[in-house]
Write a structure and sequence with these properties.
Layout lengths: L3 H11 L6 H4 L9 H17 L5 H8 L11 H29 L3 H19 L7 H18 L10 H7 L7 E6 L5 H14 L4 E5 L4 H13 L3 H6 L4 H16 L6 E3 L7 H11 L3 E5 L13 H19 L3 E6 L17 H4 L3 E6 L12 E10 L7 E7 L4 E8 L5
Parallel strand pairs: 1-5, 1-6, 2-3, 2-4, 4-5
Antiparallel strand pairs: 6-7, 7-8, 8-9
């Protein structure tokens, strides 16, 4: 019996295409049935040994297989059929489990299975195929027109002029880690960036793993209105000035078309949760504070595996949703200076489009990260096109000001 997978492989042989075409079509081994895998393995083994594709007659003789008349459809057609079969089988496999669990009154468990099924089928529906020059050209023009309408540079602004200038802003598919030691001010920098994106007309989403949303919002409102965040936290704002300013800002935010989403995360927030939120709300940019704390779907994995897998999944999410993702990580040692010094993983250096390190300017400790005027150095550890440089940033928490003071280009070491 000739199945869809065998028809696809037959067409591949007929067109003298190497098996690498399968990945270009978005087809993995998971799509194939045992007999189809047997045929694929034979083709791969033959190519490894003889450095050429086997003839169709050789395949029929060696595998006792007969190819009857197979419709003369292109490879893409058979790939689409295979993908549809895979999704259908996935759904059929899970329906009995979902029905059984729901019948026991375990609605939440059944709902989680439905979410998992949705994620799996959605991932396999993403078009990973080959694009033509004209197709991508149309996409490029559309991106240009969108940006021109917004009247904003080349990407979503970071909010630091020098960084925006040399990088062109955060762009779709970017995975951007911000690394630093504990209490150096990573969260404040990321919040400052998110405000710049929001004020430029974009819709940001911020995932928290360590703080409650109200803690983040206090800081964001403080930075937007230059009000000491301690005053908001301790109930010390002047009623007719500072509090009135904050209240007016909240009202203006409620009337804006673009939203600012804050995910009520925790130490139990998973990568799957984040993917669901992004697919549901479709933000223009995602910020993840404490990305190293996100759980993957394998709770038994080591911390190294969790962080590594999480970074890979965030990169894939950025690419599949065509949005930039900015995350905070920690340096693994006090002397951490480079992208290779990020705690518990080596893969971020490979995945990062742009990487930024935050360093103390004076070498002193931050006893209270809301109390004093201090300075930080933002160092570009990796640039999209090899850019390098560093920015001296003012941290004035008394007046809730975080801004670029000086900037200079540095040599690539």
């Amino acid at each position: 019996m000739v199945t869809i997978g065998i028809a696809l492989l037959y067409r591949m042989l007929l067109e003298e295409k190497n098996t690498s075409i399968l990945s270009d079509l978005g087809i993995s081994r998971d799509y194939l049935l045992p007999d189809e895998l047997k045929l694929l393995n034979f083709i791969n083994d033959y190519v490894d040994r003889y450095n050429k594709l086997p003839a169709i007659q050789t395949v029929e003789a060696e595998l006792d297989l007969s190819f009857p008349d197979i419709p003369n459809e292109p490879l893409v057609y058979w790939a689409d059929q295979l993908r549809e079969r895979y999704i259908s089988n996935k759904i059929l496999e899970q329906i009995p489990n979902i029905s059984r669990i729901a019948s026991l009154g375990k609605g939440e468990d059944a709902f989680q299975l439905i979410k998992k099924l949705y994620r799996e089928t959605t991932e396999y529906r993403i078009d990973r195929g080959i694009a033509t020059l004209d197709q991508v050209g149309i996409e490029a023009l559309k991106e240009h027109d969108d940006r021109q309408l917004r009247k904003i540079g080349h990407g979503i602004p970071f909010g630091f002029p020098y960084l925006d200038k040399i990088s062109g802003g955060a762009q779709g598919g970017d995975f951007i880690p911000i690394a630093g030691r504990p209490s150096v001010g990573k969260t404040f920098i990321m919040q400052r960036m998110s405000i710049a994106a929001y004020d430029a007309g974009y819709t940001p989403m911020l995932v928290t793993t360590e703080m409650q949303p109200v803690q983040y919002v206090r800081r964001i409102l403080a930075l937007r209105n230059r009000v000491n965040p301690n005053k908001i936290r301790l109930g010390l704002m002047a009623t007719n000035t500072e509090r009135a300013t904050i209240e007016k800002d909240i009202l203006s935010i409620s009337e804006r078309e673009n939203r600012y989403y804050i995910v009520r995360g925790s130490l139990t927030t998973t990568m799957s949760d984040v993917m669901d939120y992004v697919r549901d709300k479709r933000p223009d940019i995602l910020y993840v504070d404490g990305a190293y704390l996100l759980e993957t779907d394998n709770p038994r994995a080591s911390q190294f595996e969790q962080i590594t897998t999480g970074a890979k999944q965030l990169k894939l999410l950025a690419q599949s949703m065509n949005i930039p993702i900015i995350c905070t990580y920690q340096f693994k040692r006090k002397t951490g200076e480079s992208i290779d010094d990020i705690y518990q993983t080596d893969v971020i250096a490979q995945l990062a489009s742009i990487a930024i390190g935050i360093h103390k300017d004076d070498g002193g400790d931050m006893a209270d990260d809301l109390a004093a005027i201090q300075y930080r150095i933002l160092r570009i550890l990796k640039g999209r096109e090899g850019e390098h440089g560093e920015i001296r940033v003012l941290y004035d928490m008394q007046n809730a000001v975080i801004e670029q003071v000086t900037a200079e280009e540095t040599e690539d070491e």
